[in-house]
Amino acid sequence: MELSIANLKQLLAKSSSLGNQVLDFRDDISITEQGVDSLDMMDFFLNIEEAFNVTIPDVDIEKVKTFNALFQYLRNKSNEV
Amino acid sequence: MIGITEIGSYIPSKRVSNIERKEQFDTDEDFIYNKIGVSQVAVKEADEDTSDLAVKAFQNLEKKITIHRNEIEAVILITQNPNSNIPHSSALIHKALDLPESVACFDISLGCSGFVYGLSVIKSFMEVNGMTKGLLFTSDPYSKIIDPKDKNTALLFGDAASVSYLTDNPVYTIGNFTFGTIGKESSNLTCNKNILSMNGRGIFNFAAKYIPVDIKNLLSKSNLNIQDIDKFIFHQGSKYIIDTLIKRTGIDDGKVIFDIEDYGNTVSSSIPIILERILHDHNNKYIFISGFGVGLSWSSNILINNKLK
Question: Could A45 and B208 be called an inter-chain contact, meaning their C-beta atoms sit closer than 8 Å?
């Protein structure tokens, strides 16, 4: 899967009970503040790890609250490889 | 062949409501009902201990089937919260039930995978020693170790016990098993200084990644397809974990039982409590059971209806 905010939103739509509503989420506001609960976030992070073959340690979760931050985090990870 | 003849269980009547604690834990009813799937947790009385719950499960078993206590040959208890470290709590059950001195009694220290492991152990132990009647208990009252302020655990775990009566005239025979352990991930669910601590994400990732693969492996080992299984009883970790397993395996959700809203996740008792309810439903030929949790450990098994073989 190509790394893009649009694709991240598609992954979240798969995880969240809000479904396609998340496609309209803002990129610069915390995802949880926009209505996604903690359990759906766990599923979302697992789907990201599997889709992009990365590991997101627990200590990094706080750093990736928005789509913008998450995208940048994953881009940096891919550059590390 | 040794298998399950009957199951008894005991769920304490005392409840602590999750709905009444929703503000304390900054959550809402939708999350409680539809994600955790537990609206209240069962809590034992202060004067009830681990072996007492097990004995009450046995008393309920005796209401369903005549058991000659002098014929019992083996007693195994699955627990990680025994009455005390010494003696083993199965000996206290032995005392309370006034069982014969010839009975083999021992405890097994496992959490949510414990019932399935225990089935394998008691079946093997009984068969290799020529025994025909044994009791497999589960009793792991987490209220002894839960911090009531910890949202991760306080809204989830409930107290209960079960006892499975295993004989050479079973309702369900015991098919193939799978087992596994990821010790390097064990820190996700621990008890230190008598307080339970759970990293929910670690446990979720473990269940979501490993159990679907394990299901495929056991079906393959048993020459069965997913459609051949009539009921799936997964460890009742939370509604979210069960829903995730359904999503990731494509199992027909009508075949997957989740039913702990009234009492909570009862650790190694969660599978036998559900199994008890469908044990005599002879529409089910194959029941797939899978326990997973503390360790991180898992085990799955396929039970085969002896009348529909």
Answer: no
